[in-house]
Design goal:
Elements (H helix, E strand, L loop, with lengths): L4 E5 L5 E5 L29 H12 L2 E5 L21 E2 L2 E2 L8 H21 L5 E8 L15 E4 L5 H12 L4 E3 L10 H6 L7 E7 L6 H22 L1
Parallel strand pairs: 2-3, 2-6, 6-9, 7-8
Antiparallel strand pairs: 1-3, 4-5, 7-9
Helix pairs in contact: 1-5, 3-5
Organism: Sphingobium xenophagum
Protein name: N-formylglutamate amidohydrolase
InterPro entries: N-FG_amidohydro (IPR007709), UCP029730 (IPR011227)
Amino acid sequence: MSEAFTQIDGGGLDVLIVADHASARVPDDIDLGIDPALLDNHIAIDIGVAEVSALLVAQLGCTAILGGASRLVIDLNRELDAPGLLPVMSDGHAIPGNRDADLAQRMMRFHHPYHHQVERLLEGMTAPFILSLHSFTPHLASDPGQKRPWEIGILYNADDRAARIAIPMLEAAGLIVGDQLPYSGQQLNATMNRHAEANGIPYLGIEMRQDMVRDAAGQRRFADLIGPVVLACRSALT
């Protein structure tokens, strides 16, 4: 066990689900200086991702690695020199406890062990395929005028092979799909840039809308929709 990640082992299929922001956990010895209610907010966790990941592990017989700490403790989906690694503001909320925090210590404690485990898991696979799973808020407090009507988004940087397979499949299933929406993987794709694109490993980056995966029924629906898409992408690309 590790405080940096939770691993779910479901079988031998060479699919790795990577969920950077699946936890809202803040260790007892870290004081973020925020209202604890914010830990249920999108600024702290990708709502629904842990549950959908577990359902997909059971459905596909694969492995998942879930980030073990809140993105407010350390953002695992940021490059090593990115300013957002240790957020002091998030969607209009100040995170005062991070102003004087030791970034190097947080990196050694959470960021490095998490990414090293991703590397170990991929090295143990013969023909790996990665599903990067996130969720997005339909409403930003800092930009209330922004419309986010998509039910699911597909993100990628240079490698759009899986995206081209997944988008028409998800549209055919009746979902409103965002291609590089609600934001672009060309700007926000650190984990997949590092583990997938840099190594030629095919992957699918998915963003689920949080108000649709808050409850068990929504989580089951999305897992049932995503599972066949992952298998189709893997079959075509590995």
